[in-house]
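ARCHIVE CARD
SHELF: 3
SLOT: left
DATA:
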Amino acid sequence: MILLHIIKTSLTALKVNKVRSSLTILGIVIGVTAIILIMSIGKGAQDLILGEIGGLGADMIVIRPGKEPTGPTDIAGTLFADSLKNKDIQALTRGGNVPHLKAIAPVVIVPGAASYKGETYRAQIFGWSADFMSSVFNIFPEEGVLFDETDIKQQASVAVIGSKVKEELFGTEEAVGKNIKIKGRNFRVIGVYPPRGQVAFLNVDEVVVVPYTSAQTYLLGIDYFHEVLTRAESSDVVAKTVRDIEATLRESHGITDPAKDDFFVVTQEGLVDQIETILGALTAFLSSVVAISLVVGGIGVMNIMLVSVTERTREIGLRKAVGATNGDIMKQFLIEAVMLTATGGIVGIVLGFVLSFLASFALSVALDVSWTFTFPFIAAALGIGVSALVGLIFGLYPARQASKKSPIEALRYE
């Protein structure tokens, strides 16, 4: 039998049992669909996070306390480290220690909620510099003003709030000039940001920004910072600025061995690399776990093909009696197995495309972010290739069993 005839014969055999063929490829369909879905969502998440990080600017440098985390278990140590203090800010801004430093702003993260009269709202509360935040995100109050360096030095009880915070606490009432409570302390609202949504790592609509000195003294009772944000004069001098920051902080902390640093510096480039590595590894891990279903699907194909060989024993005997060779029989059953799994791969890709698009749309609406739909063409190509390979591998044994049957015994089979 020529190859074209074998293919036609295989197609005819598969069409005879459409329901069984459909159920046979179900495992392959599920596996490929899941891989497409995971890789699409993973790429969308990566694009979203990197896009938000990029909003900070290439000249941004972040200083964080503690040892640089090398894994998920190290993150907690960084959150509770207290190695960045006011003396470090003074050292960084003193003389020519960091000549290309354009701006610096310590950050204190305050867990809790803001309240006004009977209303309470769990906002993102930061002890920060309002001027620094406005310069980085290019956002300024639509009502009122920002607090300045004088307010920071005097530990003033003032706050600038987001539009969502104003809406939840004050409704249609005027917010500027009113006092909100944070951890039992009154803070006078002096400014309200316009609606802006998610920018980089925070939602501007949900923030409450107070002077970092006030947050340290009145809200948390600490003398350290959770991180320090700095900006270099330009992206061209970021590398030199990082070296100057590290040298200055080591001198401030009395550290001579860089391996004993109790702080670490992250640039936008480094942060992007970290995010890409983490998300890439997570996507690869999840995809490999889901790929197990392809193996399960392959075993299902092998089982059904073995059943098919038994059911079609007389057909095999008849074909051999009219001149088909062992090789012809083997090719026919191999082609049937590959056709089954390849079809499953194609259906899985189509289904994965549809579900990925719907998932991207749902995430955009649910999270109120610009979630980009990305279809992983590499995963689609691999899906078809791997599906066909699974059919080839798991169809080999049934095909050999079929080719070995004796034509005389096959014809006598009832």
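SLOT: right
DATA:
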Amino acid sequence: MKRESYCKIVATIGPASSDYKTIKQLFKAGVDVFRLNFSHGSHEEHAARHAMIRKIEEETGRPIGILADMQGPKLRIGTFSNVSERLRKGQDFEFHLDKVTGDSSRVSLPHKEIFAAIKPGEDLLVNDGRLRLTVEKNDGKVLSCKVQNAGIISDRKGVNVPGTVLPINILTAKDRKDLEFAISLGVEWIALSFVQKVEDIHRARRLIRGRTRVLAKLEKPSAIENLEGIVALSDAVMVARGDLGVEMPPERVPQIQKQIIAACRKEGKPVIVATQMLESMISEPVATRAESSDVANAVYAGADAVMLSAETAAGKYPVEAVKTMDRIIQATEEDPDFDSIIHAVPLPIDETDSDAIASAACDVARNRNCAAISTFTKTGSTVRRVSRLRTLVPTLGLTPDATVARQLCLAWGVHAVKTRDDVENFADMVGKSTRFARREKLAKNGDRIVISAGVPFGTAGTTNILRIAIVGEHEESKSASKSKPAKKSASRKTGKSTEKPASEE
């Protein structure tokens, strides 16, 4: 099943899309990676969804990636005697560490990490930023605040602390249980919520111990301040625009989104743009013009993937949402100016053999009008180096590792294939590349493809070969070598005949 677009689609599974038929329809409509949201649902429900995805993978013969999204710390206020209260602009209001019954002047905030870190002059946001309160005093037990805008405050609403780095473990006790369960299922990605600093990724990696890939969700202003370090240490990144838009002025989010995408492309790390992309399709069968522009702008910026959340998890039109997103991606990539737009800012090329080969493969593919770039990989690293260059030529990622093939489903422009075994020699390299390029409908007989691999074959991190091959030619010459008689020639020194093969690789 060959996708017609380079940018990938991530879709969240939920109550609206938990049955086998719908999940298969979502995959056929264009989903490359499915997201399991561990903020909702039981382990049994996630296991059932995982099993259905793997069944679809087996039936279709195409690798499918699975992303397990950890809930992370949830900061919430307590409850009110009247369920909710209306606060006036300029009034005083208190948050108490100890449990109190909420009223128009106070409510409990049972999170000692906030009291340990927040300082006078910093803000607390309540209910997705609808209420902003500025801290005037913090005695360790009570935060005395001034209300900055009028609004309703009610039971168990979420709290954001945009200007403060909290001394908090981003993996709660629930998250650690969920993480171990997700890894036991065999997911390809673990998404980390509430990332603030590089140490958060280090701490998570110590728990994960290399058993799966780590994706950092960037949803805090402090994470943007530590962007380069977080991107360098993560395997992939998500632009979580919902919380970013709460904790910083919404007009800054588009700029931050482009900054994150650029940082990820520089490092060759997949980046997902998420949240509210086609939100109107939760209840409506068509997207708005503004939403279409939003998706297109992420594609123009070079995002590896765009994500649907509630649209597919809880919406009325999950399959239509995926089809709509797929059409927007394809229309954007068909723009005659797309190539120049996506390469408006040139990427630096690292001084490594792998980067040099990746860059050369892309140049040859463009200059020689090649149908595909075929890359053999053990870990996926070389394929991602080709992907980061955003060449408008499909990349065929060949790997004997099923997990690596599934991970590559998140990489821009990559058509991943699990092979039965690794290549053994040059003839095998060319033969596998041309056969898979034709079988996967990336090329036809007579088309050129570029092939990159490494010698010694089967050794990770040794990409050092670049070759052009013509689809169909290799198989024909191999067949001819079997059917044609050997030619004889005389040896100058002995006068004896020697056999020479009819065709050589």
